[in-house]
Amino acid sequence: MVTTASAAQLQAPSRTSSTARRMARRGILFALPATLLLIAIYIIPIIVLAGFSVTDYRLGALSTQFVGLDNFTAAFADPVFMRALKNTVLYAIIVIPAGVFLALGAALLVYNRKHSRAFWEIAYFLPVTATLVAMATVWQFLLHPSLGPVNAAIKWFGFEPVAFLSNPSLLIPTMALIGIWQVLGFNMVLFLAGLTAIPKDLHEAARLDGAKNPIDRFLTVTWPMLGPTTMFVVVTTSISAFKVFETVAVLTKGRSGSEVLLFALYLEGFEYANTGYAAALTLIFLAIVLVLSIGQTLHMDRKVHY
Prior knowledge:
Blueprint: H1 2-53, H2 70-77, H3 79-111, H4 117-129, H5 132-142, H6 149-156, H7 168-196, H8 200-208, H9 214-225, H10 227-242, H11 246-252, H12 261-271, H13 275-301
C-alpha cells in the first residue's frame, strides 16, 4: 500500500509538468502568427532602416559605401532639418494642450446632454472619419485669400484679408488649428468614455462632503478619475502632432516656413532619392517620438489614480 501511494505521488507532479508544457506549447503556437507579423512589419524594417542610415545609399544605386554616423551629424548641421524640427515642436506645443483641454471641455458639455448627445458626438467625430487629404483641400478653399469664406467674413467685419497660407509667420499656427480640429472629435469620444466609467456615487459623496460647486466636484472627483484617460489622450495626441504630413503636403507643399519632420523625410527619401540620409532622419524621428511617449507615460503615470 505504501509503495503504491508513493508511486502515485511521484506520478502526480510529472502529469502536472507534462500538462503545463503542453499548454505552454499551445500558447506559443497561438502567439506565433502575431509574433511573426510583428517581426515582419516592425522589427525587420527597423533593422533594414538602421543599415541604410550608416551608408550613402541612393535609391536605384548599384553600389554604396559605409559612412558611419556622418548622416546623423549632417542632419543636425542641416538648416532645413533643424527648421523642420523647430516647426514640428512648435506645432506640437500648440496642438497637444489645445487638443486635450478643448476635447475635455467638449466632452463635459456633451456628457450631460440627454436628447442631443448623439448629434454632438457625430458632429465632433466626423473629422476623424474624413480623409485628411480631402479635408486639407477643403481647408485650402476655406482659407483662400479672395475666394474663401473665412476671409470673406473677415472683410465683412471691416478688416483686411489675412494670408493664412502664404504668410510664413502664420503657416504653423494655421496648420496647428487644423490639427486641433482633426484630433478634437477622437479625444472627445475618449473623454466621454472616461466620464461614463466614473461612478455617480463619487459625485454624490463629494456633494455630501461639501463640494457643492460643480468646479469643486470636477477638481476633486472627475479630473483625478480621468487620469488614465488623460494620459492615453496626451500620448496619442503627441504622436499625432509629430506625425503631421497631409496638411503640409496639400496646403503648402513644404515651402519655406512650413517644413515639418515627416515632410522633410519624404522629400529626402522620395524626391531627392537620398535613401541613406532619409533613413537617418527617420531614426531620429522615431527616437524623438519614442522618448517623448515614454517620458510622458512615466511622468504622468505617477500622478494617475487607477
